[in-house]
Every structure is written in C-alpha cells, then in structure tokens.
Amino acid sequence: MVDAQSGKMRDPLDTVQSFLTQFDALIDEARAYYRVETLAPRVHVLSPKESQHPPKETLTKDVALTVAALIHGVEVAGLGVMVEFLELVTRGAVRLEQPLGLALGNIPAALKGVRFVERDLNRSFGRTSIETAEDRRADELEALLSRSRRLLDFHQVKLTIDRPFWIFPYSKSGFQFARLVAPDVTLITHWGKGFSADGKCSDEWLNSVGGMGVTMELGQNGFDPKQISHGVAVITRALEVASALDKGGSVPPAVGSKAPIFTWGEIIPYPQTGSPVLDPGWHNFKHVKAGERLGEFSGKVITASVSGPVLFPKYPDRLGDGTYGQNPPAAELVRVLKEITEAELPR
Ligand SMILES: [Zn+2]
C-alpha cells in the first residue's frame, strides 16, 4: 500500500496498526448514534439507541449478527472491511436496525504479521484451557458469540486464488443464510467429523451452542481493495437478510447467478513419517483429474483418486535448521473438492 503523503510503500504492519487506530476511532464516533457495549478490547456490540427489539434481559441471543475478522493474524482484509463498513455506519449511509457484534480476533498476531502467536485461535473455541493467549481470547470472543444469533467470519487464504468462497460446517440455517446473502459466491460445506479434533472453529462452536456461523474466505492474504469492498457489500447484505428473517418476512432477492456447491471429495493425509512433497504450482481451485500426479512420497507418486478443484495445498516451510516456521507439516497434504447439488446436502 502506498502512503498518500510520502508516496513510499508502507510497511504492511504499519497498515495493520493504522487500520486498528481507525477502527477504534470509528467505534468511538459510533457512540453518538448507537449504544456501544464493549465486552473486551475490540469486541463490541452496537445497538440502536431506541430499540424496538426486546432488551437483552428478555432475549438470550440479543445480537442479530456478529461480524468477525483477524481470527488469523495475517488475514487482514477483514480488518479493512470493518473499517470501511464503520465509515458507512458513522456517515449514516448504513443504519443498524438490530444489535450488531463486531469482533477482531487475534490482534497480537496481526501486529506481528503471523497467523497466530501460541496456538491457532480458530481451533481454540470450546476448550477449557486458559493456558495460551489464544485460549483466553477465544473465551472473550465466546462471550459475544454466545449472545449472537449469527456469525459472519471473514478469513483469507495463503495461496493464489481466483475467487472468494464460503466455507463452513453444514447447518441448514447457515446454508440458507449464505445462499441468501451471496448466492454468487462458491460454497464449500462439510458435515460429519469436525474440521479439527483439537478445539473448535468459530462457526462450528456457535453452531454447537444454538447459533449459526458461516465463514467467508475473501481471497488471498493482504489489504486488497477489491476484496475489502466485496466484504463491505456482504456485511450490508447480511444485515438486510438477518433483519428480514428476524421479522419473519421475505428476503429481497439477491443479484447474481448461483455459484456451485462443493464438499470434500478426497482428503489426502500427510504421511506419519518421511517428507511428502506436493509438486509446485498447486493452488486453490486448480483442477486435478482422477489419477493425475499431485506430488511424491518416499519415491512413490501421490495421485488424486477423484477429479475436482484442489483446496488448501500445503507447502510446509522447512527452515535451514530442519525445523518449521508457521507452516509446519499439517495432518493433511491437500483436499480435492467434489461438486454436489442441494439435494445431496444432509436433510
Ligand atoms: Zn483463516
């Protein structure tokens, strides 16, 4: 990002700090128009001052929608989305009819330019441990999520990608919400076994306590203006949909054609020993054919058993001393997606 005054490239970490400062200032400004309840640092609820809705005491889930960003520190576009959205709110271009939760996840990680500091925040929900900073932050976020009827969590991916996509554990209400909010965005959903055995994701956790959570990956990591304006449009539309659903009315139709729906076709695990290597060049949504080579493990070729777009190819960052950086070998090497119809979703 180029600094308007000096014309020099700005350090991305300075940009994070500057967006955080703007976020705080806009929350302060919003106090003139909304009731702002701060549950933890950068975890707020904005409510209309003269609310026609029942007060908090009479409704356990009084927050109609919570928007989250920076659950992973390097996925910064969501922070840009929050700031641009708050500008619309404080200018009066967007009016909040219902309580809205706004939460920034892993600030220390964002300020360091890393995904997480001690453990993955998006695998830290629903744990009893308070050992790590992320465990403690998950507790703070859970205090807001447990009051939220819906969650829209913005993330980004590490590698090149040609589109945004929805990704969340299947729930009927989550699927309907995502399709009403942005039917033109590719949707990946999964059911059965949890995404990770060790702690829950934000959306998964909210689903387990009677709310509904969906996640949108905006694109590749970074403050991309196109991704940011798309995210702002998604929040605005999500508010409209949430309001219509809560009033029991019909939802104004969305523009755009319906994007495909995918679930996991194949998950290729990371072998216990040895160093499997994905061939270079695999990136999200690059298509693989059944039988096509993906990489190699101990002299044996790894091939896909189904055809479809690949997702989350893993390239561990092995350091000179044989240890790993923030991308150690994961439980899996790559996933292959399978396109499905709505009729194939769980009942
Ligand atoms: Zn993420």
Name the features:
2 domains; binds zinc ion; OB fold (Dihydrolipoamide Acetyltransferase, E2P); three-stranded antiparallel beta sheet; Aminopeptidase; alpha/beta; 7 helices; twelve-stranded mixed beta sheet; 347 residues
Entry summary:
Helix content is 27%, strand content 24%.
Which structural class do the helices and strands define? alpha/beta
String of helices and strands:
HEEEHEHHEEHEHEHEEEEEEE
| Average pLDDT figure | 91
Distance between the termini: 46 Å
Specify the number of helices.
Answer: 7
- Unique ligands: zinc ion
Could you give the count of β-strands?
15
Helix content: 25-40%
Q: What is CATH's topology name of the largest domain? A: Aminopeptidase
Point out poorly predicted stretches: none
How many separate domains make up the residues? 2
Largest sheet: 12 strands, mixed
CATH class of the largest domain: Alpha Beta
Q: Specify Rg, calculated over alpha carbons.
A: 20 Å
Shape: globular
The CATH homologous superfamily of the largest domain corresponds to: Zn peptidases
Annotated CATH architecture of the largest domain? 3-Layer(aba) Sandwich
Q: Strand fraction band?
A: 15-25%
Give, in spatial order, the strands making up the sheet with the most strands: 1-2-4-3-5-8-6-7-9-15-14-11
Please characterize this protein's 3D structure.
- With 347 residues, the chain is α/β, with parallel strands linked by helices.
- It has helices at 12-30, 77-91, 107-112, 133-145, 172-181, 202-208, 225-246, and strands at 34-40, 43-48, 65-69, 100-104, 150-157, 165-169, 186-190, 212-220, 261-269, 277-278, 287-288, 293-297, 300-303, 308-311, 332-340.
- It has two domains: 12-246, Zn peptidases (Aminopeptidase, 3-Layer(aba) Sandwich); 264-344, OB fold (Dihydrolipoamide Acetyltransferase, E2P) (Beta Barrel).
- It has seven helices and 15 strands.
- The protein has a twelve-stranded mixed beta sheet with strand order 1-2-4-3-5-8-6-7-9-15-14-11, sandwiched between helices. A three-stranded antiparallel beta sheet has the order 10-12-13, with no helix packed on it.
- The longest helix is centred in the C-terminal third of the chain and has 22 residues, at 225-246.
- The site of zinc ion has 5 residues, from loops.
